[in-house]
DNA sequence: GCAAGGTC
């Protein structure tokens, strides 16, 4: 039997399909699907199926000095037992094994891991390695016709990285967490990739904090030719003889304005025209895809998750790639033709096919890992995808179109006019040839109109405006710019950069989007800068890359590299030992600062965001138990303490993070006082207890900011209906006959909306929620929805009734935590 | 309970 091992299940299926000419069938080996035809078997791994870790006796943090981890043994252990078992079972019967993992360093290591599993069971079957960079018939058949051997040096380079990352990350993470006495989930983590990334964010924040704005002025005038007006701006030559628009002195600005206002005409001094070619963009690699999706409003992780769904469904190629050059065996014309008949893209594809020749653009990076992201000939109908998925799919299709389209041509027109010794300029631009913009509408094609004037011509000055401005602090990194910067610095990989950002959010290091660092993040970066500079610098990756290259080239061994790295970490721990307490205190202060609102109105100690034993959040006093002052917080989402401070109480405002239901709660003391001041408004009989006890329904505002319709006999009667948190609620004269309650109207923003009878409203809402499509849940695409339906879950209402762990076991790609998030969302 | 790297 010939066994073929691939890196992922999808690749196994497609390779089996190609090599068997479509005759392969599936069989189960344990719980794993394997493809077979004749004497061949193809099994797909799931990336790494074994991982490195310390032996069991190092697992308890309290029993081991973090510094001991530096010299602790490192073991390989299966992380995906079912797949490991299946590989071993197949290996026993194999006469020959072919490793067909991805064509990159990590693929070589994953291949070696498979090789070692095979060798545990089978001493003598020959093991070959095939390499191909896209799963197309030609490449795959060619690779299998010319098998090679595993590159053990290259795999060892990857193993060295695993060991160095584990030792540094685990030892320093434990050191920081233990010194700050952080237990449980709230450990303080550092690592070769996450900490330099965090430093980028922290350093930008330092620049913003240190920024001192400066006033300046800009002077504009409208010039007109026969009533045809356009905007021009005053400029001058500064001391370096460069053109400048900003006027730094207010008196100078006023003088120039006065002069200009006294003039009614300006004479055209020069007119220059030039045309500029605007080349179409390069094919998508992961980073550029994330950036483009980011400009459509998708967060990096969300964009990748949608792309993975589209890939699994077969609509686009593999979304994790560094490559920006299409492979030779992609025939763009052929692919375009498959779009020519579609309703969504037919006319654009047809117009592209009219070109004399089709020559796709090329980016700077040509790699062997995977082709650039492009659509496959397998096209979905619009109805097959959710709205978000369609947007991302269309982006990928149109990017492919753009890469085979013509350049655009812009015409620039610069006019300089002079009056009373002052010069005014206008820069016009016009899109003369739309080129690729016609099929790729994601870039701006805004034009700026400046009429055709000629030198010596007189223009009238219509309107003079002096604008006072101030210099702006540097902008925070957005998610996609962070990912681009990580790529430029060489930290992380195409597959992990967006995960690193999510990790920083989860660890409480960054908040909001664009991300801002917490006090804790600043303290961690400061501690690392002072004591373990290497872990916070992007150079650690650069140095490690150089060492890995040396291993791959046979110039160094894994042992040499990991020993050097251990020595460096030993030296860091020698210094850290003396400062343990100091570091711990600083981290603890920062942790507290992130949760501090301001002075307690009763005792003056700090008010802090705390969590009750049941898990709900509230505001409590640091003087507890002497001071028992508390304030409630809303019961949805996770609280974040903002920098904005309430003027009345000197307390920082609170924001509740709850996905798309995120909102700013404000000062919790103001909210509580507002609720105390707001009278309950009675609207009608309580359906539960009016007949028996005379209870009535009232619109109530709770101290945590929630608003509801509840019974006046609360807590004896707990009947309640939810109401929106925001907006003024008007009680109208129209009555619901069924419930004997007035119709309500909510005034929030411009358009008031009719909520109607609160009971009818709630019943409708509950029914809708109950039967809502699975796709309305966060992160559920058609693939996941299909799998959920297979497991007997058809609606959002059904999700509420399942056991999260059971469902996670049944449905591939869904974790129990995800299910719990859906359930919380549905409440 | 630690990292980063695969993949779902």
TrEMBL record:
Q: Which reaction does it catalyse?
A: ATP-independent breakage of single-stranded DNA, followed by passage and rejoining
Residue ranges of the region described as Interaction with DNA: 189-194
The site annotation (Interaction with DNA) covers 48, 161, 165, 320, 507
Is Cytoplasm there in the keyword field?
Answer: no
Looking up Gene3D superfamilies in the UniProt record yields: 3.40.50.140, 5' to 3' exonuclease, C-terminal subdomain, Bacterial Topoisomerase I, domain 1, Topoisomerase I, domain 2, Topoisomerase I, domain 3, Topoisomerase I, domain 4
SMART domains, from UniProt? TOP1Ac, TOP1Bc, TOPRIM
What are the residue boundaries of the Topo IA-type catalytic domain, all occurrences included? 151-573
Q: Which GO terms describe its biological process?
A: DNA recombination; DNA repair; DNA topological change
SUPFAM superfamilies in the record, alphabetically?
A: Prokaryotic type I DNA topoisomerase (SSF56712), Rad51 N-terminal domain-like (SSF47794), Zinc beta-ribbon (SSF57783)
Disordered: annotated segments: 346-385
Q: What is its EC number?
A: 5.6.2.1
Q: What start-end ranges are recorded for coiled-coil regions in this protein?
A: none
Q: Where is the Toprim domain?
A: 1-133
- EC class of the enzyme, as a word: isomerase
Catalytic residues, per the record, are 318
- Molecular function terms, GO-annotated: DNA binding; DNA topoisomerase type I (single strand cut, ATP-independent) activity; nucleotide binding; zinc ion binding
**rRNA processing keyword on record:** no
Q: Which Pfam families match?
A: HHH_5, Topoisom_bac, Toprim, Zn_ribbon_Top1
Subunit (UniProt) = Monomer.
The record's comment on protein family reads: Belongs to the type IA topoisomerase family.
Kindly provide the name given to this protein in its UniProt entry.
DNA topoisomerase 1
Q: Which organism is it from?
A: Halanaeroarchaeum sulfurireducens
